[in-house]
Amino acid sequence: MTNPAKFWDRIAEKYAKSSIRNPDGYHQTMARTRSYLGPQDRVLEVGAGTATTALELAPSVGHVTITDVAPQMIRIGQERAKMQGIKNVEFHVDDAKVGALTGPFDAVLAHNLLHLVGDLPATLDRLHEILKPGGIFISKTLCKPVGRGPWVYYVARAVLPLLQLIGKAPSVSFMTTRQLEQMITEHGFDIIESGHFPDRELRRYIVARRGQGT
């Protein structure tokens, strides 16, 4: 099995130089996410990679805590924050269970992450724990297509086991949208928005709220 930290460390430089594959979907995601955040909010992004999303959102909020399992991803994110003059951020090398952080946070973000974590139930429990009552959890997750999906999905599913065997791809869990949403609600969240933006996007964008009394 590929070690997640070592895998992402190894590709960090290449990852940082890669362009956004779906700019329209990315900008829609940023606009929708920003609409849920306030200027005083304390925000956490887990699995932030090289911090592209976190640094994009930082000027709109009070403070952003940025975590990733890969030290090299965090290093690049720190360099980017310094180059961009963004100071209301802090970085931690940590997995999605964010064991070193206590919260509470007004919002927790997990973009392009939940299909990559090894123990999703435990991760959702931990994120629920460090999110304040009434706080917002926002995720975007690769899911199985409904009906006939794009050909690239089936090609990827066919070659993924071989790439994983030689250490060229991480572990990936393929859930249906229904399975993902059910798991999120079972772990103490109320879904307030869920959709694909644009329509044929394979990644499901979900906004959920932690209950006031849970």
Write the layout of secondary structure elements.
Blueprint: H1 4-10, H2 12-17, H3 23-35, E1 42-45, H4 52-57, E2 63-68, H5 71-84, E3 89-93, E4 105-111, H6 120-130, E5 131-142, H7 151-165, H8 177-186, E6 189-195, E7 203-210
Parallel strand pairs: 1-2, 1-4, 2-3, 4-5
Antiparallel strand pairs: 5-7, 6-7
Structure commentary:
The protein is an alpha/beta fold. It has a single domain (4-210), classed as Vaccinia Virus protein VP39 (Rossmann fold, 3-Layer(aba) Sandwich). It is built from 8 helices and 7 strands. The protein has helices at residues 4-10, 12-17, 23-35, 52-57, 71-84, 120-130, 151-165, 177-186, and strands at 42-45, 63-68, 89-93, 105-111, 131-142, 189-195, 203-210. It has a 7-stranded mixed β-sheet with strand order 3-2-1-4-5-7-6, with helices on both faces. Strand 2 (63-68), helix 5 (71-84) and strand 3 (89-93) form a beta-alpha-beta unit. The protein starts with a helix and ends with a strand. The model has no long low-confidence stretch (mean pLDDT 91).
Notable traits:
alpha/beta, 8 helices, about 40% helix, globular
Mean pLDDT: 91
**Measured on Cα atoms, how large is the radius of gyration?**
17 Å
Sheet with the most strands? Answer: 7 strands, mixed
- Determine the CATH topology: Rossmann fold
CATH architecture: 3-Layer(aba) Sandwich
Low-confidence stretches: none
Q: In percent, how much strand structure appears in the residues?
A: 15-25%
CATH superfamily: Vaccinia Virus protein VP39
